[in-house]
Amino acid sequence: MTESLKEVNKIMESTDVNVNHKLVHLDLKGAPPKLEYLEKIFPLLRKWGTTGLLVEYEDSFPYSEALTVLRARDSYSMEDILTLQRLAEENELIVVPLVQTFGHMEFVLKHSKFQRVREVVNFPMALCPSNPDSLQLVCTMVDQVMAAHSNLQWFHVGCDEVYHLGICDECRRRQLEDGLSPEQIFLQHVKNVAQHVRDNYPSVTPIVWDDMFRCTDLDVLKDSGLGGLVEPMVWHYLTSFQLPADFWEKLSAVFPTIWVASAFKGATGSRACVSSVAYHLENHNTWLSTLRAEQHRFTTIRGFALTGWQRYDHYAVLCELLPQALPCLSICLQTLEKGSYTADIHQNVSSDLGFTSLLPLNPFTCTVIPNCSYPGAAVYQLMIEYAFLEAHCDRFISSDGCLTWMNDYNIKRNFTNPVHLEPIFSAASAKLQQLEDIKIKLSAELSSMFSDNTVEEWLATHLQPLIDKIRRCEQTAGQQLAIGLGDDTTESGNS
User: So which residues are the catalytic ones?
Assistant: First the structure.
């Protein structure tokens, strides 16, 4: 074995993963927290090893002038943006803004004034990279966010999951007449956006998601000119990675410096309410082992971004809320800090968050609701309680009792037996009371951390539909019990 190969193997076997930053992702396209709550948790983030925030504003940013229409009802004010930065600075956290500039543009392209730059006229996800108005639009968005921040080192321009590409007439024309592939059209747009950042903000380095060029030929990637312009952020949220065999070799041939992105919430179900700590721990352990094997290829692994998705896209319902996921975030950060997960980390995080017993790594197996005390602990506890109650309600609705003795066919004919309906009615009433109680508690707790719009949305999309199901069950059973037996107008099952 040559000396160079021995050196490579020695590096690969090292237990140290050398990164400069650990960014916590704040996905503000859903449930943007009140600043009072962020003020409480930023010191914890710093204590746990966080060095910065990856702030994905989406429609929570106070866009102005021609972009005012992009603002959500509960968007932050410009004063709020400045306060967020002050709070970050006080806790020695850098801020890296993230603005989507290609895909995931629903919050922009849903508006009629911007529909002209859609790649597919009926779909609001991706803009057309061949329309000159597209570049002007996203550069204006970048400029407004840049103007609201100071001392930035990096700016994330998104560009992941561009599912509609090379489809419109102008993009097809470029493919036919200019001999460009859809990949080249994609890379050219990314380059144009990155060049805008470099030209106008020389001290700021653009970051871009990696997924759209994972399978791009090396020569095409080299010819794109992105190598000297951007730092890719490689994201993977699974516990077992699915990447092309030559991925790391190819990436390192073009980009000497990269970031990687894991997940601490928002990656296990589009309407999940509770985070599985065990799952996300495994994702981080997989990242650590991957980087031990691959970091020798790069000049710098700039850092981790621990993503915490709040919606799967602009139109999706809310998934796990930030206060609920803080225990998972804490244990994942500590695992990155120490280089591996240990029993000591589990014990220390549990103690730090006020758990009276060890933090459950799989909250779905809890036999009792854990006792804990940290900013947002009540939301953590109530979400676990709700998850259990939801499961119980689903099993009740699909139980043999309901499906056999209170099915739609028999209800339509008033052909029911009170001996079976009474326990169904009692169970539905008890569950309904539990749901109403948890609604009151959650409403109060969430209101201290989120806007009224967020509280209303979470309750209306998660809890209220379940309440309505159980209430209909209770009402139906009650109506059938009131009818009673022995009425000659009822029909037999064989009538």
Answer: 161
